[in-house]
Design brief:
alpha/beta, Rossmann fold, 7-stranded mixed sheet, 9 helices, 9 strands, 37% helix
Amino acid sequence: MTTIAVLGNGRVGGTLARALTGAGHEVTAAGRSPGAAVDAVRGARVVVNATPGAGSLERLAALREELRGKVLLDVSNATVDGPDGLPAGLLHPGSSLAERLHEALPGTGVVKSLDTMLFPVMTAPASPAQAPTVFLSGEDPEAKQVVRELLGDLGWQPGWITDLGGIETARATEAAVLFVPHVIRVGGFTPFAVSITR
């Protein structure tokens, strides 16, 4: 059992919190209240960033000391939204939210993952017709292993998990969000994910 704080109580955060609780972990979900986030993070070994990506850096930088020594699983994408509310561009072109968090949070094991799919697939990876791929980006091997084990608890098979390397590789996975509005316009909100086939 791992103590986990999920920051963000929207569809993504709520779905992950329920699934991780169902897998036997001790999960605390915190909304946007700074006080609730501080308390949740202090008692956790792993923190999941499921806050809206445009404000994630500011929110988590304010928790720098509380996050020191923790594993931070970042599932958010920082985007500039179009008139329809769907992603139209990246907030950190030439970089990524994960890299900015890594720089802002010394002593925190930042791992980017679960950001290349619609949220239902995060906790039900066997649901698409074809096996999806989930990626890991980060500098800390121990933090990556913790996240890998959590992914297994969510139903991800070892062969579906690809470690891309350092935190800079999160630029590629975060950029995949630019596919999302076009795929949704064509096929609706049917759950989908990136899948690497060989």
